[in-house]
């Protein structure tokens, strides 16, 4: 055995590096500087936690001592991990949870906290449909929060606000019936803070609009710096064009195949927001519409997310735009596998009864995952997650979605849907 091969084997034995499915990395495969990162599965209080080490072993990669994953496909750049990013990696914060108010605690199978901290919730005393979610270790006045109601009935949920409480992040979620009355509901909530992270792959952006109404219409809305992120390092912008109509501009996002989600923020009208349409040239432009309980356009603040694959960058999962009972256009779906050099899976949809069933193939581990849905199109219809389950395939996930009109009656609708796992994309 050549000395390099011997050192490689011994090094991996010492580090005991494993992929998230438990397989020991064998050090074989192409060495691509820009694609190198490792995912180590650890256990914290019985829950798996993915920890990414990016760029720190680039020298070892260049010597051929460890393997580096290849890029996901031939038409896009390989994942780039610049040395300048390593200092900022500690600032990244990620968390999600499925919250069922009928249960005393958050189900540990459906939560993730990048710090390994606990996620808890409470129903606010004296209120129906008002919840406080705490994510330990993620306390920061920054980032993006997305929320969607969960279950077969027509309740909706929105973000009321989020704020640090010491080192813990407190997220307040309000849920209500279609007529605006407060209503108990299960929901899914996610938090992402990419402060200081700039990268060429995967591209992504998020923002909080910061105000419901521009000073003049049409006119710009000021987006707070610490509540927006663009992976190219430039600023996003929001312009209000009419009552309840907004244009989000994302410089550097030169693609339209993306996970796009919007959540209404604050306000007292039980409003909801959705994606009207989007497209991309040199920049991506997304049109957002917000509606009151009568289905009329209404001014509203909102949170917004635009990601290349899953809801969190470099995580296993994927997205799809569904524009019919059997239509999931290939040009508007993208999946990321557990192993970066395996061809990605595909998304498909069927509509057997009341629910749209979106299938994500090769989606990897089912536990410690979440789903997010946002309605799409010019009507005031909205959509929610009914459930997500392991599909019949060995690595397949089904996300079931149901859509409603303004009165809470089930109604056909287009939507965007994203499935995200706690696990990071790993090397070959």
Outline the fold blueprint:
Elements: H1 3-15, E1 37-44, E2 47-54, H2 58-62, E3 93-99, E4 111-113, E5 119-123, E6 130-136, E7 144-150, E8 156-165, E9 168-176, E10 186-193, E11 204-208, E12 219-221, E13 228-230, E14 237-242, E15 245-251, E16 259-265, E17 272-280, E18 283-291, E19 301-307, E20 315-322, E21 333-336, E22 347-350, E23 356-360, E24 369-376, E25 382-390, E26 397-404, E27 414-424
Antiparallel strand pairs: 1-2, 3-4, 3-10, 5-6, 6-9, 7-10, 8-9, 11-13, 11-19, 12-14, 14-15, 15-18, 16-19, 17-18, 20-21, 20-27, 22-23, 23-26, 24-27, 25-26
What is the residue-mean pLDDT, rounded to a whole number? Answer: 81
Largest β sheet strand count, sense and barrel closure: 5 strands, antiparallel
Number of DSSP E strands: 27
Q: Separation of termini?
A: 22 Å
As a percent range, the share of helical residues equals under 10%
Main β-sheet, spatial strand arrangement: 12-14-15-18-17
Q: Name the overall outline.
A: globular
% residues in beta strands: 35-45%
Q: What structural class is derived from the secondary structure elements?
A: mainly beta
Number of helices: 2
Radius of gyration: 21 Å
Regions with pLDDT < 50 over 5+ consecutive residues?
A: 1-90
